[in-house]
Amino acid sequence: MLAYTYVSKGNFQLLEKPKPEIRDGKDAVVRVELASICTSDLHIKHGAVPRAVPGITVGHEMVGTVEAVGAEVTKVKPGDRVAVNVETFCGNCFFCKRGYVNNCTDPDGGWALGCRIDGGQAEYVRVPHADQGLTVIPEGVSFERALFVGDVLATGFWAVRISEIRQGDTVLILGAGPTGICTLLCARLKEPERILVCEKDPDRLAFVREHYPDVLAVTPEELPETVKRFCPNGGADVVLEVAGTSDTFEMAWKYARPNGIVTVVALYEEDQVLPLPRMYGKNLTFKTGGVDGCDCEEILSLIAEGKLDTLPLITHTYPLSRIEEAYELFENKKDRVMKTAVRCQQI
Ligand SMILES: [Zn+2]
Ligand SMILES: [Zn+2]
Fold first, then answer.
1. In terms of CB atoms within 10 Å, which end of the chain has fewer, N or C?
2. pLDDT per residue over 226-260, tens digit each?
């Protein structure tokens, strides 16, 4: 089968590899229908993910059909349409039992697929701990609509869940890339009074204004005035930082109101400074980290009910044979790309 492979730093190639097989009773093999490209794939390409293993197939955001399952798998069976979770987790360790699946202590736990073990930008993928890693897609929900459930949408959902957004709140989201938009979609479900989105890229701002007219989308230059005007208590009740630059880290605590919540979802390329003397008396609560991707079933139900729709995020689709081009487009943010889907069967 064809598999897009991390050969070495800066070098991904579409290679012929053997089809994966069940190795453990908890494994499943999934025939990948659609995969997508994520910024984390680019981080691997640029050599910025030291734990990524050269030779592995990349891709950690995909949907498909179960082809085979190991003897201990009980929740899915061959023929099921499934969303694959970016995180592999055992479901039994201290952290898994508390819902902190990102910190699963299993040797395969955490972000393994498409990083430490073969991922899904390929015709087939082996998924360890399949009972936790796969979620059946409800009837009536297309592969396209379920594509982001295991990664960017899971991240937005988790970020909103830990941010304790209440009805009537003003929520500020920094960054309107795919994860920012997923965060925005999930934040809306909490019925805040107002959502502000700050983004410097004009195409992304236009995307928000076009698809989510109820949201106030502004540039970083417009933000101070906007916050002054719409946040009577000195800042937003909740700030979600999804952009990941030094500027946005500072904006996150600066534009939160006293006693507000700041949730940092972004992954920074360098350390950030937390200027505690300047923040003294502001009494902020910070929440940080990586997604605990354990809400996929609930997310899929919300999609089935029509309450979450990420279809507009798929701006481009390519066959696996042309995945090079898909990367080129995504990496260089060409043609107003938001997310690129890759069809892994009609090669
Ligand atoms: Zn990702
Ligand atoms: Zn675990």
1. C
2. 999 999 999 999 999 999 998 999 999 999 999 99
Distance 38 CA to ligand 1 centre (A): 5
Please tell me the distance between residue 258's alpha carbon and the centre of ligand 1 in angstroms: 32
* pLDDT digits 0-9 by tens, 124-158: 999 999 999 999 999 999 999 999 999 999 999 99
Q: How far, in Å, is the centroid of ligand 2 from the Cα of 26? A: 13
Q: What is the pTM of this model?
A: 0.96
Say yes or no: do domains 2-151+293-343 and 154-288 share a fold. Answer: no
Name the CATH topology of 2-151+293-343.
Answer: Quinone Oxidoreductase; Chain A, domain 1 (3.90.180)
Ligand 1 centre from 226 Cα, in Å? Answer: 31
Among the bound ligands, name the one nearest to the CA of residue 153.
1
Q: Is the dihedral of CA 102, 104, 107, 109 positive or negative?
A: negative
Of the ligands numbered here, which is closest to the C-alpha atom of 94? Answer: 2
Q: CATH assignment of 154-288?
A: 3.40.50.720
The domain locations on the chain are 2-151+293-343, 154-288
Ligand with smallest separation from the Cα of 147 = 1
Tell how far the Cα of 229 is from the centroid of ligand 1, in angstroms.
35
